[in-house]
Amino acid sequence: MMSSSELRVPETVGPESDAGLRPDRAAGFKWRRIAYLMHVSRALDALEEELCAQGEIAYQFSARGHDLLQVMLGDLLTHPHDGVAAYYRSRPLLLSLGAPIKEVLRSVAAKGGGYSNGRDIGVVFNRPGNGGPTALPMAGGVGSQYSPAVGWAQALRYRRVVRNEERYAGAIAVAAGGDGSVAASGFWAGIVAASTLELPVLFVIEDNGYGISVPSHFQTPNGEIGDNLAAFSGLRILKGDGADPAALADILREGVSSVREGRGPCLLHLKTPRLQGHSYQDKQAYRAPEDLAQASRRDPLPRLRDHLTPGVFSRDVWDGVEEEAKAAVRDAWREVQALPAPDPGGVGAHVFSGPDPQACGGQRAEGTTPGQTEASALSDGPRINLADAIRRTLDAELRLNTRLVVFGQDVGVKGGVHGVTRGLREAHGAERVFDTSLSEESIVGRAIGMALCGLVPAPEIQFRKYAEPAMEQIADCGSMRWRTNNRFAAPMVLRIPVGAARTGDPWHSQTKEAEFVRMHGWLVAAPSNAADAAGLLRTALRGDDPVVFLEHRALLDAASARRPYPGDDYGLAFGRAATLSSGDDLTLVTWGGMVAPCLRAAAASSHGVEVIDLRTLWPWDRETVLASVRRTRRCLVVHEDSLAAGIGAELAAVVAEEAFLDLDAPAARLGMADIPPPHAPALLGAALPSAETIGAEIERLARF
Ligand SMILES: Cc1ncc(C[n+]2csc(CCOP(=O)(O)OP(=O)(O)O)c2C)c(N)n1
Predict the structure, then answer these.
(1) b/e per residue, 672-698, with b = 16+ CB within 10 A?
(2) How far is the CA of 211 from the centre of ligand 1 (A)?
(3) Residue 35, SS3?
């Protein structure tokens, strides 16, 4: 958690004295502070270059050239609910938002504590708002910052309009990126969502002409993203010199106030010189000498000096500010050098939520506790199918929790392509159950921003295969708590239909659960019946971790999955398997769509087969599985996903490691052949495990 002293902006150069200046000079900016932070930023860059050369730190991404626009922008981000999603070259902006120099260096030097406790790359930051603007956790992926910023903006509007939280009025989201990032899918997803929904987002493109060595005309025609977006209705565009203090004063003020006043999103295309290589290691051999010379002529630091002296303060004051900044960086580095390295024993902490809530994100961070969900199931409820169970649970939780929002492609008016959200929009309104643009990156990325702003997002992806464009956001969401050392978390419930129904094909029938288990920080549910689905979904929606909720398409209306509705209070804990049949000869572990064929195979077998439905794949119930295997001495894992590196491989490995001496046969697996799901029923039948092939494998293992 941050101490209150960390929240104060460093006012080391005395009170403001801009009164009486020419308006273009004063222009509402805290010029002394800007000058100070420019010098701090330059001193940090210089120090890092030394440290890189000595091999004391691994990375440096110089902000020289980008620094002025960032410290001036930060000066205008004063609303306590402003949210800033930036990138690895954004340190001056972070300093301007109040990040202490010592904390910055601590992160760079990979010391214990600080932004990430030595876990992330050291040049990306995060900063919980605590009464000031929030810096959303940055990530390494170029373009990944835009959708979370748009989600933050959407949540700002939601909190004000739906929850009547007036304190969110006037707050904005800022997304900053380089000219390379405008080619990324996240950028386009962000521009489309912000423009179509008229959201308060300020896009700041810091165009230094290169993405590492690739010139900006490879990223957008002529390198002119502002011109190319001119036809976008609903998006205001301002262009200018990102190294000229006077021009910046006008453009930044205009852009920020236009978004704050509710005039929709605005994009600033600011040309900046890149005064160093992309990173310390990059010696820029690809740039012509004249290009380099021209860049250094555009250096914003001397231009700021000429802009401010002698009109705002004397040259002596300017020089004094520079010395003060250099001394502050030197002192901070001396302190940071003495700090200990992170404790290796703690490297596994904060993958999932624990007793200490995160400072920012999810409902718990604001002091609310997720509801208890341990009530027992009602057995006299109406018998419903799995789709109804999900719909009823969403409906009940939407009634209970006004922070919950349900969205995705066709989720609103149509009620979902699988019909699962049918009627929810009519019941809860278009602000709470809504459609999105056709971008999975945007669906999950926006959910991250919403969760960080305190909402409980429950996005839907139409089919498992179509989660692939969202994988970058899914991975960043999962690692967030860990890499920010429990400062931030973005709990959400990501509903994804999986599996083959009547037919298969490579796009609509994948299960691919193992990918989510390997995405650190996600819980994974794979219910096989309506009661389990209701209980797991409720626990997920009241929890504090991101959850992938896998809904098997063939089970949505299957007779085998129908159960009495367990009631509006019923919750099921993750990591507790259900033993569906008992037996002494073999343990059959399965979940989701394979439960029914496994039960059929067990019933038809002459051997005593204990069928265990895992219900959740992360965590999975090791105790129940191992206790059963130690008794039956045989284990077969059956899943619909393909075999290689699947969850069956993980389970079989654990059984082999933990229960080797108890086994009378090798731990075995059955799954889809290592091919995509085929379309023709004859081919699908041959590729998937069936009651017959499962029965044959039971027989083989029993006789082993
Ligand atoms: C998705 C992704 N692809 C590739 C990279 C490797 N990479 C890091 S920075 C960078 C160039 C980005 O250039 P730009 O957006 O113009 O920002 P600048 O570094 O110039 O400020 C690349 C390709 C990455 N981080 N993320």
Answers:
(1) beeebbbeeeeebeebbbebebbbebb
(2) 6
(3) helix
Q: Which two tokens stand for residue 402?
A: 């006004």
Take residue 632 and report the two structure tokens written for it.
């039956």
What does the pLDDT look like over 354-402, one tens digit per residue?
A: 999 999 999 988 887 766 666 677 878 789 999 999 999 999 999 999 9
Asked whether this chain's domains 364-564 and 578-703 adopt the same fold, the reply is yes
- Side chain identity at 530, as an amino acid letter? A
The Cα angle at residue 127 between residues 124 and 133, in degrees rounded to 5: 125
CATH number at 578-703: 3.40.50.920
Q: What is the 3-state secondary structure of 67-92?
A: HHHHHHHHHHCCCCCCEEECCCCCHH
Q: At what angle do helices 67-76 and 245-260 cross, to 10 degrees?
A: 40
Give the tokens for residue 139: 């990530």
Residue extents of the structural domains in the chain: 31-339, 364-564, 578-703
Residues 6 or more apart in contact with residue 294 via CB below 8 angstroms: 273
The residue whose two tokens read 């909190």 is: 159
Looking at residue 426, its amino acid is E
The preferred substitution site among 61, 87, 138, 142 for testing ligand 1, maximizing ligand atoms within 8 Å of CB, is 142
Overall pTM surpassing 0.85 (yes/no) = yes
Homologous superfamily of the 31-339 domain (CATH) = Thiamin diphosphate (ThDP)-binding fold, Pyr/PP domains (3.40.50.970)
At residue 688, φ and ψ (nearest 5 deg) are: -95, 150
Residues 158 and 106: their CA atoms lie apart, in Å, by 36
Work out which ligand 1 atom sits closest to the CA atom of 61. Answer: 19
Q: Which residues contact 144 (CB under 8 A, 6 or more apart)?
A: 184, 186, 445, 472, 473, 476
Atom nearest to 182 CA in ligand 1: 15
- Residue 624's φ and ψ, nearest 5 degrees, are -60, -45
Q: What is the pLDDT of residues 185-243, one digit of tens each?
A: 999 999 999 999 999 999 999 999 999 999 999 999 999 999 999 999 999 999 999 99
At 395 the three-state DSSP class reads helix
Q: Which of 586, 527, 534 is nearest to 560 (CA)?
A: 527
What is the three-class DSSP state of 540?
A: helix
Burial of 378 (0-12, 13-18, 19+ CB in 10 A): middle
What 3-state class would DSSP assign to 558? coil
Residue with tokens 């999950």: 444
**Torsion angle defined by CA atoms of residues 77, 80, 81 and 83, in that order, rounded to the nearest 10 degrees:** 40
**Peptide bond just before 619 cis, omega within 30 deg:** yes
Report CA torsion sign: 207, 212, 213, 217. Answer: negative
Q: What is the number of the ligand 1 atom nearest to the C-alpha of 278?
A: 19
Report how far ligand 1's centroid is from the alpha carbon of 367 (Å): 37
Report which of 70, 471, 84 is spatially closest to residue 259, judged by C-alpha positions: 84
Mutate to test the pocket of ligand 1, among 212, 219, 280, 282 (most ligand atoms within 8 A of CB): 212
**Domain 364-564: CATH architecture, name and number where available:** 3-Layer(aba) Sandwich (3.40)
Peptide bond into 310 cis (omega under 30): yes
Q: Pull the structure tokens for residue 411.
A: 């989720």
Annotated catalytic residue within 508, 520, 607, 639: 508
Active site residue 508: yes
Amino acid at site 404: L
Residue 33 alpha carbon to ligand 1 centre in Å: 30
Identify the CA nearest to 137 among candidates 87, 174, 183. Answer: 87
What pLDDT is stored for residue 373 in this prediction? 67
Residue type (1 letter), 220: T
Among 88, 94, 89, 42, smallest CA distance to 71 is for 94
Q: Contact 178/207 with Cβ under 8 angstroms?
A: yes
